Amino acid sequence: MLVSAKEMLQKAKAGHYAVGQFNINNLEWTKAILQTAQENNSPVILGVSEGAGKYMCGYKTIVGMVNGMIEEMNITVPVALHLDHGSFEHCYKCIDAGFSSVMFDGSHYAIDENVEKTKKLVADCAAKGISLEAEVGAIGGEEDGVIGKGECADPNECKMIADLGIDFLAAGIGNIHGKYPENWEGLSFETLDAIQQLTGDMPLVLHGGTGIPADMIKKAISLGVAKINVNTECQLAFSAATRKYIEEGKDLQGKGFDPRKVLAPGVEAIKATVKEKMELFGSINKA
Ligand code: 13P
């Protein structure tokens, strides 16, 4: 059964580790992530962007697939199904479809409008036991065609949003989605520290987990980050493994063209990436 991400992230914050949100794109992705979480006794959050939602034939299809896998694969670790960077409208679509968690990305609205919309979602999510993530300060890079630069959130605005009763907060601290450029200045721990001081026990979310060096990840966790989002890194691992299979001509040998064989190395590569992240984030054996 899907669970809200609230409790798992409160436990993570108190225990000084982070739970990974791994974005899904299809059946193979979802299966690989669920298997890895179960094998490592780790809680996990499956992230779905609006674009990936559309690709996978809509939120109801995804809920059916994930619930089916949890039952058929005997997944017993806590699993949350979470809308990533949702618009106000899509948060409601996911709530209706059976997601257990949503992120409302109101970071592009003026703070007053972000507050107003977040408040409504707080009430509606609480009534259904669904966890809610909100965002302050746009996170840089490109996601679903939207490009922003790595901003730092205003800690006072973070407090204002945190106090509305959300369950966890994403705040820009110089992080970017996708690969980090050569001249990236790194995370702003000063901003993160200021945010945590004002928001107290609120679990903080670090987006753009791909390519952040291990020492920065550990420091971010020590300053209150309890959820880390990883997407691009699984995509890179999947495509490199698939490329190797094709370039080695394996699809031309015997029944190597069987899609279950073609996709198998990519699935193993996703599993290895997810396991490595779970080790780094400290979520293994925390289910
Ligand atoms: P990356 O693609 O950089 O790992 O970021 C993922 C993310 O933050 C999803 O919200």
Q: Your description of this structure?
A:
- The chain is an alpha/beta fold.
- 48% of the residues lie in helices and 17% in strands.
- The strands form two sheets. The chain has an eight-stranded parallel beta barrel with strand order 1-2-3-4-5-8-9-10, surrounded by nine helices. A two-stranded antiparallel ribbon has the order 6-7.
- α8 links the parallel β8 (168-171) and β9.
- The longest helix has 18 residues, at 111-128.
- The protein is globular, with a radius of gyration of 18 Å.
- Bound molecules: 1,3-dihydroxyacetonephosphate.
- 1,3-dihydroxyacetonephosphate binds at residues 23, 47, 84-85, 177-178, 207-210, 229-233.
- 1,3-dihydroxyacetonephosphate (13P) is lined by residues 23, 47, 84-85, 177-178, 207-210, 229-233.
Blueprint of the fold:
Layout: H1 6-15, E1 19-23, H2 27-39, E2 44-49, H3 50-55, H4 59-72, E3 79-86, H5 88-97, E4 101-104, H6 111-128, E5 131-136, E6 141-143, E7 146-148, H7 155-162, E8 168-171, H8 189-199, E9 204-206, H9 214-222, E10 225-230, H10 232-247, H11 259-262, H12 264-281
Parallel strand pairs: 1-2, 1-10, 2-3, 3-4, 4-5, 5-8, 8-9, 9-10
Antiparallel strand pairs: 6-7
The chain binds 1,3-dihydroxyacetonephosphate.
